[in-house]
Write a structure and sequence with these properties.
- It is a single chain.
- With 348 residues, the chain is an alpha/beta fold.
- The protein contains 15 helices and 9 strands.
- The strands form 2 sheets. Strands 1-4-5-6-7-8-9 form a 7-stranded parallel β-sheet. Strands 2-3 form a two-stranded antiparallel ribbon.
- The two termini are 29 Å apart.
- The mean pLDDT is 96.
- The protein binds coproporphyrinogen III.
Length: 348
């Protein structure tokens, strides 16, 4: 059953009965079921209790009818065993109390072993294996650059000035940090695959802050290491970033059987830039979900028309679901995608 799921088929660019759809951040605060659990536990507590993480992973499966589950976790969890002191502060996003700024800071990062340091993540995957009933499970990690940006800045950032200052003024420190992170993240991703993740996604959410030349020098070799370690296990690997129009070809070279597209570029233009020898995932603007249904429908149909029935399209947003998104609109998109693509483009 799992092997025939339309999501896995699309990842492998095989024909499907209907376009598969899931959403980045499909579990989260826009869902009342999630808010109910969050009243009692912090984000990190949910992640560290495998039964809770598995339960939250299942919430959008039940509520939306999506074609894939994404493990409930966070790209910053590996920062905890590295000894950098992670906290999610109310209304502020992630805070890292011991940011990395020098070579000594890089060297002081603790050794990492995914199965013992983040065993709770693997336990959640093992629980989900029994409860998903054939819905494929996506594991994930952050790409080295996006994780490094939090570790260097100490929090979310707009300009990535500390990160770029390190890159341009102390490249040996930046490279040493990226080397360490690529080893940690490869180990983490492969451990998730061994625990039972059937597809993995590498989130390079903020890589669009870089020029192609800087991407090639400072990021590509390290992302490649993580992506290739996952690809060596022969499962589909999704490589995602935002603001990546000028980086897509380099990202393809770094790796991934599926490339994620944000909404800034029409899907067909993005797919052409990447080449039709890769699958693509995307790319509805998450803000569309706040529009009236006819407008949502027009935009969903536009994306499906651009995909043109070509095997290898996974419908998703161009980035994660936003807070306060109406759940009914998310559910409506799932139904629109399934109905439209099953009927075909002649009769939308
Ligand atoms: O449903 C899912 O997609 C799985 C769970 C998931 C979370 N984070 C849970 C979470 C996933 C895949 C992530 C990835 C993640 N985390 C990314 C990459 C994806 C992206 O959006 O670009 C990034 C950059 C992070 C780091 C992070 N975690 C930030 C910046 C924040 C704070 C911003 C915010 O939305 O509050 C988080 C917190 C976080 N991680 C929440 C969730 C559901 C927020 C909800 C809460 O606090 O309970």
């Amino acid at each position: 059953m799992e092997m025939n799921s339309r999501f896995l088929q699309a990842c492998q660019r095989q024909p499907v009965d209907a376009t598969p759809v899931w959403f980045m951040r499909q579990a989260g605060r826009y869902m009342p079921e999630y808010r109910a659990i969050r009243e009692k536990y912090t984000l990190i507590e949910i992640c560290q209790h495998p039964e809770l993480a598995a339960e939250v992973t299942m919430q959008p499966i039940r509520a939306l009818g999506v074609d894939a589950a994404i493990l409930f976790a966070d790209i910053l969890l590996p920062v905890i065993p590295l000894g950098l002191d992670l906290e999610f502060a109310k209304g502020e996003g992630p805070i890292i109390r011991s940011p990395v700024r020098t070579l000594d800071d890089v060297r002081a990062m603790k050794p990492f072993d995914a199965e013992s340091d983040l065993g709770y993540v693997m336990d959640a995957i093992r629980i989900l294996h029994g409860t998903l009933g054939g819905v494929p499970l996506i594991g994930f990690c952050g790409a080295p650059f996006t994780v490094a940006s939090y570790i260097i800045e100490g929090s979310s950032s707009r300009e990535f000035l500390k990160t770029k200052t390190m890159m341009y003024s102390a490249p040996e420190v930046f490279h040493a940090l990226m080397e360490k992170l690529s080893a940690v993240l490869s180990d983490y991703l492969v451990a998730q695959i061994h625990a039972g993740a059937q597809v993995v996604q590498v989130f390079d959410s903020w890589v669009g802050a870089l020029s192609p030349a800087d991407y090639e020098t400072f990021v590509l070799p390290y992302s490649q290491k993580v992506l290739k370690s996952a690809e060596a296990t022969n499962i589909p690997v999704i490589h995602f970033g935002t603001n990546t129009t000028t980086l897509l070809q380099l990202m393809k070279r770094a790796g991934g059987s599926v490339l994620g597209l944000d909404w800034r570029l029409p899907l067909d233009d993005g797919w052409k830039l990447i080449g039709h020898d890769r699958a693509v995932q995307g790319n509805l603007d998450p803000a569309t979900l706040f529009a009236p249904l006819p407008e949502i429908k027009a935009r969903v149909h536009d994306i499906l028309r651009r995909a043109d029935g070509r095997p290898g399209h996974i419908f998703n947003l161009g980035h994660g679901i936003l807070q306060n998104t109406p759940v009914d609109n998310v559910k409506a998109v799932v139904d629109m995608v399934h109905e439209y693509s099953a009927v075909g483009i002649e009769n939308p």
